[in-house]
Amino acid sequence: MQWETVIGLEVHVQLATKSKIFSGASTAFGAEPNSQACAVDLGLPGVLPVLNEQAVAMAVQFGLGIHAEIPEVSVFDRKNYFYPDLPKGYQTSQMYHPIVGPGEVEITLEDGSTKAVRVHHAHLEEDAGKSLHETFADGRGHAMTGIDLNRAGTPLLEIVSEPDMRSAREAAAYLKAIHSIVTYLGISDGNMAEGSMRCDVNVSVRPRGQASFGTRAEIKNVNSFRFVERAIEFEVERQIELLEDGGEVIQETRLFDPERDETRSMRTKEQANDYRYFPCPDLLPVVLDRAYVDHLRDTLPELPAAKRARFQDELGLSAYDAGVLSASREMAEYFEAVKEVCGDAKLAANWVQGELSGALNREGLPIQDSPVSATQLGELVSRVMDDTINGKAAKQVFQALWNGEGQSADEVIEAKGLKQVTDSGAIEAMIDQVIADSPAQVAQYRDAEPDKRGKMIGYFVGQVMKASRGTANPQQVNALLKEKLDALC
Amino acid sequence: MHDTTLTALAAGLAAGEFSSRELTQALLARIERLDGELNSFITLTAEQALEAADQADAARAAGNAGPLTGVPLALKDLFCTEGVRTSAGSKMLDTFVAPYDATVVEKLKAAGTVSLGKTNMDEFAMGSSNENSFYGAVHNPWHRNAVPGGSSGGSAAAVAAGLVPAAMGTDTGGSIRQPAAFCGITGLKPTYGRVSRYGIIAYASSLDQAGPMARTAEDCARLLTAIAGHDLRDSTSVARGVPDYTQELDAPLAGLRIGLPREYFGEGLDPAVERAVREAIGVFETLGATLREVSLPHTHYAIPAYYVIAPAEASSNLARYDGVRFGHRCDAPADLTDLYKRSRAEGFGEEVKRRILMGTHTLSEGFFDAYYKKAQQVRRLIRQDFLDAFDEVDVLMGPTSPTPAFDLGAKKDPVSMYLQDIYTIAINLAGIPGISVPAGFVGGRPVGLQILGTHFAEARLLNVAHQFQQATDWHLRRPAIAEETL
Amino acid sequence: MALEHADVLRAAHLARLGLDDDEAAHYLDDLGHILTMVDQLQSLDTEGVAPLAHPLETTQRLRADEVTESDQRERFQRCAPAVEQGLYLVPRVVE
């Protein structure tokens, strides 16, 4: 039987506010345990929440970024359950009236084609704290878990997709698209390793052609692009195998174990939870003024899809280049800055994707930490364009800038004497010297069939370039050498 | 000194007749000597009180005294007080020393008042008799076998007995007004949102409101002026200016339109209470007011709606008492569930558990629409009843409670206890202000007249109550214990 | 809507309230009476009436995104029953 995979994602994005969603405590990552948990975050008796305007603005910006409806009124509800990392015994969330209504995210597939994935809604909520399972013991030697509530109250935007994805690849592409939208908007640092983006994956399979969905499993808390793909691949295989063996998929929550590369059922110790949602009486309905929403819309930065289109249409880049260069806001900003300085989009694209990306990958650095600034690279490209240096010297200059051996391309060119020699007198003199020093090679050249000579000229070019320490203009060297050698034949 | 009003004491302090330290010492001595009979205080804070009194005296000497500087009072033990145990009348918080002050407490401190201590109350403000306190029942100063009312029973008893000139209470379904009525004092529940709830241990967030309890409307006006106002830490507090509530006390009542809700004089009302209340209302006619009967047709549904909404909110508000960050924790928990279940079973009393169970049940799957949503719809109808009535009249009047204070232990069945709040509970659902003023006696037990106004009509209510108190002397009657001198 | 023993036990579990059988039976009785009283609501026609969550129909005010709180862990943990290395301790949570 042919099976079709159906995937929906719930992506939790930590919003990059300075303070928490309902309190004035800091959201900075990595502080001493509980040093950023204020009275409100701890749920001390008598405390009350007050909503952070920036969290609201960021949620709306996301909504606008995915062309979603922004309802005029949204309401916070309480989701009631007990867990030690949930201080109040309820999570303040939005169940019935979320801040962002239906929207759409465009994803780009491997073959360059695009697909729209519908977003059901996105809502604001507070994050929980963290449980640390290192060994603590109570007085009787029983193992204890430590609770750190620094993260409690960090604003989260939960983005809930429709079950529109049909493969692990599509799901990963969707997650990447969300990542790039939120980082473009600057509403999240998108740092998955620190948990700034986490997702729950709903997976089911059905015989191809069947209209109704199969029973789904929910894989909780997957925190990397790669794991999303692997978790789905495993889960799809598990479900198909189960069904083909005559079994049934049960609706349950599963965990992905990256070490074993499998998903496994979270033992459901007790009856299904009943969260008893009801409107939070400590918070009033959030009403968004049209003018406010319009203002946010007007000040929205250019988003990846628009940027990609512009790179292709206006800058003449290939679909591939446009995709790569618009994938992250940092990459796009860097590229555009290089282009701004040198004035040539294609050369700028080549350098960013070639020399720079290579070096960054080798060192494992993100582009925002590049030792070579966009201005430096732009100036370097300009020097290639105006023939001040040749391509080979340019690589040397790049390496020098990378190593911090100079403030600018010009400084490095000057210090290393890499300025291209285009004076034909000087080049001729070097050629004459090389020919004089290489009688054997000259003899071979002369004896060779004329159609073989083309290849043999490489030796002489190399010698001349070496003599010029790489600064001679290679085209000139080639032309003059050919002329002089052929004259000897 | 003890047998006088807050207003008179403030005047005495201003005139230098006595210092705040002298006044504070005298009242602390009375509490030490007399509160054994009443049990109106959970915690006395003598040391902090004397310190605050000295600061008040120093401020006065420096010419920095305000209208309330040096005035002693007490706080219901539901207000968080930094460095002082804040128990909510519960074993759960028996050892909880609050690390911060409630906004009301901050404001009272800033006004120079001197808190003598924390008063007894029904556990987590759930009750109408003050019998649900971990610290034991409070006795009514007028009759030791009678309840003082609840949940702010300690505050009411302490004021009635002359232990403090005023005390802060909270009112979720009548918890200021009913004990004020039972103890023969004046108690004001402001409009929802008028006073910050920050730092007041929550019972039912959409209903809770703090207010003053004192001997006179004038005293209440002074205190409300000090505690009202917008608080950035409470999203539900209202950004609206605070007038000096004493300014309009003397406005004449000629032409005042008084509405008498038909439903507040019906079945269940003790005829003797009705007589006293009607007589009191008659006084207003002599002051130039006009009376007319009005209807609040959904009155009958207020108690059912309240007992869905309040327990639902409470079940969620009280989930934070889990034995992890503060409060009671059971010994040697076997596992997490055991920690939760035993800490909460041991820490909460019976009525609190009853309401948590009730609220949990009505919010749970399959019941939400039938109970919670329905109750919220009824809540709108109840509020509309009041808004419609206030289109026709300026204030509404009726009894605060259908009976005078009942005997301790008389109401064993929860529903019969709940029905006591028939005239007070709808006011919280609608969010309007209400005041109870002493209006006579039945069998030696005080009767309260309740006066209701539309949202933010506190100045009007205080004016109406004050004019009544200018024309009557019920509020000056004292129980024997208040006459005792040391 | 009649309340059953199982409903009480379910609510007690959701609310993490330890109850023994006698207590559950006692609360079943009490809650039954209260629900009977509450069921009067069902006789009222509320078709088309919007639920009212707050007595004042005002809207949420927003707070500027500023860090206003400093570290007060020591103070807040003074009232905590079990703390180690700045962490609140609970019996081991099994994931």
From TrEMBL, chain A:
InterPro entries: Asn/Gln-tRNA_amidoTrfase_suB/E (IPR017959), Asn/Gln-tRNA_Trfase_suB/E_cat (IPR006075), Asn/Gln_amidotransferase (IPR018027), Asn/Gln_tRNA_amidoTrase-B-like (IPR003789), GatB (IPR004413), GatB_C_1 (IPR042114), GatB_Yqey_C_2 (IPR023168), Gln-tRNA_amidoTrfase_suB_CS (IPR017958). It catalyses: L-aspartyl-tRNA(Asn) + L-glutamine + ATP + H2O = L-asparaginyl-tRNA(Asn) + L-glutamate + ADP + phosphate + 2 H(+); L-glutamyl-tRNA(Gln) + L-glutamine + ATP + H2O = L-glutaminyl-tRNA(Gln) + L-glutamate + ADP + phosphate + H(+). Its EC number is 6.3.5.-. The keyword Protein biosynthesis applies. It is an enzyme of class 6 (ligase). Transmembrane segments: none annotated. Keywords: ATP-binding, Ligase, Nucleotide-binding, Protein biosynthesis, Transferase. Residues 333-485 form the Asn/Gln amidotransferase domain. GO terms for molecular function: asparaginyl-tRNA synthase (glutamine-hydrolyzing) activity; ATP binding; glutaminyl-tRNA synthase (glutamine-hydrolyzing) activity; transferase activity. Allows the formation of correctly charged Asn-tRNA(Asn) or Gln-tRNA(Gln) through the transamidation of misacylated Asp-tRNA(Asn) or Glu-tRNA(Gln) in organisms which lack either or both of asparaginyl-tRNA or glutaminyl-tRNA synthetases. The reaction takes place in the presence of glutamine and ATP through an activated phospho-Asp-tRNA(Asn) or phospho-Glu-tRNA(Gln). HAMAP family: GatB (MF_00121). Heterotrimer of A, B and C subunits. This is Aspartyl/glutamyl-tRNA(Asn/Gln) amidotransferase subunit B. It comes from Halomonas ventosae. The gene is gatB.
From TrEMBL, chain B:
The gene is gatA. The lineage of its organism: Bacteria, Pseudomonadati, Pseudomonadota, Gammaproteobacteria, Oceanospirillales. It is an enzyme of class 6 (ligase). Allows the formation of correctly charged Gln-tRNA(Gln) through the transamidation of misacylated Glu-tRNA(Gln) in organisms which lack glutaminyl-tRNA synthetase. The reaction takes place in the presence of glutamine and ATP through an activated gamma-phospho-Glu-tRNA(Gln). The active site is at 76 (charge relay system), 151 (charge relay system), 175 (acyl-ester intermediate). Its EC number is 6.3.5.7. Residues 22-462 form the Amidase domain. Keywords: ATP-binding, Ligase, Nucleotide-binding, Protein biosynthesis, Transferase. GO terms for molecular function: ATP binding; glutaminyl-tRNA synthase (glutamine-hydrolyzing) activity; transferase activity. One of its GO terms (biological process) is translation. Transmembrane segments: none annotated. Belongs to the amidase family. GatA subfamily. Heterotrimer of A, B and C subunits. It comes from the Bacteria. GO terms for cellular component: glutamyl-tRNA(Gln) amidotransferase complex. Pfam families: Amidase. This is Glutamyl-tRNA(Gln) amidotransferase subunit A. The keyword Ligase applies. It catalyses: L-glutamyl-tRNA(Gln) + L-glutamine + ATP + H2O = L-glutaminyl-tRNA(Gln) + L-glutamate + ADP + phosphate + H(+).
TrEMBL record, chain C:
HAMAP family: GatC. Heterotrimer of A, B and C subunits. InterPro entries: Asp/Glu-ADT_sf_sub_c, GatC. Keywords: ATP-binding, Ligase, Nucleotide-binding, Protein biosynthesis, Transferase. Belongs to the GatC family. This is Aspartyl/glutamyl-tRNA(Asn/Gln) amidotransferase subunit C. The keyword Ubl conjugation does not apply. One of its GO terms (molecular function) is ATP binding. The keyword Chaperone does not apply. GO terms for biological process: glutaminyl-tRNAGln biosynthesis via transamidation; regulation of translational fidelity; translation. Allows the formation of correctly charged Asn-tRNA(Asn) or Gln-tRNA(Gln) through the transamidation of misacylated Asp-tRNA(Asn) or Glu-tRNA(Gln) in organisms which lack either or both of asparaginyl-tRNA or glutaminyl-tRNA synthetases. The reaction takes place in the presence of glutamine and ATP through an activated phospho-Asp-tRNA(Asn) or phospho-Glu-tRNA(Gln). It holds the Pfam family GatC. It catalyses: L-glutamyl-tRNA(Gln) + L-glutamine + ATP + H2O = L-glutaminyl-tRNA(Gln) + L-glutamate + ADP + phosphate + H(+); L-aspartyl-tRNA(Asn) + L-glutamine + ATP + H2O = L-asparaginyl-tRNA(Asn) + L-glutamate + ADP + phosphate + 2 H(+). Its EC number is 6.3.5.-.
